[in-house]
């Protein structure tokens, strides 16, 4: 591990300790002043040298995190190298952070949603848009803005191995499995198959099993898979936020180390620090999860199909009609106003 990376991790770790002290002692201190008192005066040259050392893979952006009360972040999860279809997005989530009311909403979009490709006259599944522009994610960002009616401020992209490692480092994820799961056709390495078998009930899943739980859909559908993904994400978030930065310093350090070279984002180091401070303010009980689905409760989508050459693809489209997202916008607006 090079010196600059070590220095960055120590800066962040110290920052987490300071945030913890501020919150646990109840001192109403300005964050900038706290970091300054701790000897963490971030010089422009220091930040540039840290970024040039590829501490976190980031894109150059003109706008920093908005000072507005609401920040919308597009979260993408890909299978990553070593998997079939490594650049398809299994996870597509809009995370909306309301800093004023200290709440957060996670809204999952089905990967099989049939969408018009921005700037083109033809359509494809939502999960294939990311690979069309993996540098600045302009295509999938534009599509999600159109579908949701919300402006995307920033994005984060991680792969399955990163998620699995983080779950391992926090000691697993406690999940309430809603129904028995048996999938004998779960994709394994080298085009093989594995069996996933889980009984109904609350249980702690290790990293590998949690990933399988998130991805399987052999006995249900994409909507149920989205719900399971949110279950795991919420469980991990609650676990991380419950950790004490003082007593669990090594865990924090290991998580940050795992994110090195694996987190792809347009958030700068400053933005990530501010984002952490905002997230730390949110009680896990104020993290709400939603899925665009075709249940009786929401009934926003309908199942359909499209002929793709010699194959027929199963897709979903808005109940109101293909590319008509009016009901989506109303649903999401109501969520974010709660």
**Element order: H for helix, E for strand:** HHHEEEEEEHEHEEEEHHHEHEEEH
| Main sheet: strands, sense, barrel | 7 strands, mixed
What is the average per-residue confidence, as pLDDT, rounded to a whole number?
77
The main sheet orders its strands as: 1-12-7-2-3-4-13
Strand content: 25-35%
Give the structural class: alpha+beta
Helix content: 25-40%
Poorly predicted parts: 1-67
- Taken from the alpha-carbon principal axes, the silhouette is globular
Distance between the termini: 45 Å
Cα-atom radius of gyration: 20 Å
Q: How many beta-strand runs?
A: 15
Distinct helical segment count:
10
Family: Belongs to the LytR/CpsA/Psr (LCP) family.
Organism: Candidatus Portnoybacteria bacterium CG10_big_fil_rev_8_21_14_0_10_36_7
Transmembrane segments: 9-29
Keywords: Membrane, Transmembrane, Transmembrane helix
Report on this structure:
It comes from Candidatus Portnoybacteria bacterium CG10_big_fil_rev_8_21_14_0_10_36_7. Residues 89-241 form the Cell envelope-related transcriptional attenuator domain. It holds the Pfam family LytR_cpsA_psr. Belongs to the LytR/CpsA/Psr (LCP) family. The chain crosses the membrane at residues 9-29. By secondary structure, this protein is α+β, with helices and mostly antiparallel strands. Among the domains are: 1-55, no CATH class; 167-223, no CATH class. It is 37% helix and 25% strand. It has ten helices and 15 strands. The protein has helices spanning 3-25, 31-37, 44-52, 138-148, 160-169, 207-215, 222-242, 249-259, 269-280, 326-337, and strands spanning 57-58, 70-78, 89-98, 103-108, 114-116, 123-125, 154-159, 173-177, 181-187, 193-198, 201-205, 264-265, 287-291, 301-308, 311-318. The strands form five sheets. It has a seven-stranded mixed sheet, with helices on both faces. A hairpin with a 5-residue loop joins β9 (181-187) and β10 (193-198). The longest helix is centred in the N-terminal third of the chain and has 23 residues, at 3-25. It is globular and about 55 Å long. The protein starts with a helix and ends with a helix.
């Amino acid at each position: 591990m090079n010196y600059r990376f070590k220095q960055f991790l120590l800066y962040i770790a110290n920052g987490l300790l300071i945030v913890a002290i501020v919150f646990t002692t109840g001192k109403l201190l300005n964050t900038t002043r706290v970091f300054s008192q701790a000897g963490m005066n971030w010089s422009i040259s220091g930040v540039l040298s840290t970024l040039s050392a590829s501490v976190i893979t980031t894109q150059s952006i003109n706008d920093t995190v908005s000072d507005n009360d609401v920040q919308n972040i597009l979260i993408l999860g890909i299978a990553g190298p070593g998997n079939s279809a490594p650049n398809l997005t299994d996870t597509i989530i809009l995370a909306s952070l309301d800093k004023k009311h200290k709440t957060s909403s996670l809204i999952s979009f089905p990967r099989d949603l049939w969408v018009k490709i921005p700037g083109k006259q033809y359509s494809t599944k939502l999960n294939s848009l990311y690979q069309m522009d993996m540098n600045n994610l302009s295509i999938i960002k534009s599509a999600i803005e159109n579908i949701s009616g919300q402006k995307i401020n920033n994005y984060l992209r991680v792969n399955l191995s990163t998620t699995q490692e983080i779950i391992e480092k926090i000691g697993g994820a406690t999940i309430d499995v809603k129904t028995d799961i048996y999938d004998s056709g779960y994709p394994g390495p080298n085009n093989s198959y594995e069996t996933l078998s889980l009984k109904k009930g609350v249980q702690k899943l290790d990293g590998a099993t949690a990933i399988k739980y998130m991805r399987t859909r052999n006995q249900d559908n994409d909507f149920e898979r989205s719900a399971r993904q949110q279950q795991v994400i919420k469980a991990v978030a609650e676990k991380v936020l419950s950790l004490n930065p003082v007593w669990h310093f090594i865990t924090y350090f290991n998580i940050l180390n795992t994110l090195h070279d694996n987190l792809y984002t347009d958030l700068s180091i400053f933005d990530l620090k501010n984002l952490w401070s905002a997230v730390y303010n949110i009680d896990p009980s104020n993290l709400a999860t939603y899925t665009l689905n075709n249940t009786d409760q929401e009934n926003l989508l309908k199942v359909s199909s499209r002929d793709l050459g010699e194959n027929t693809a199963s897709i979903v489209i808005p109940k109101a009609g293909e590319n008509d997202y009016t009901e989506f916008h109303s649903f999401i607006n109501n969520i974010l106003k709660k």
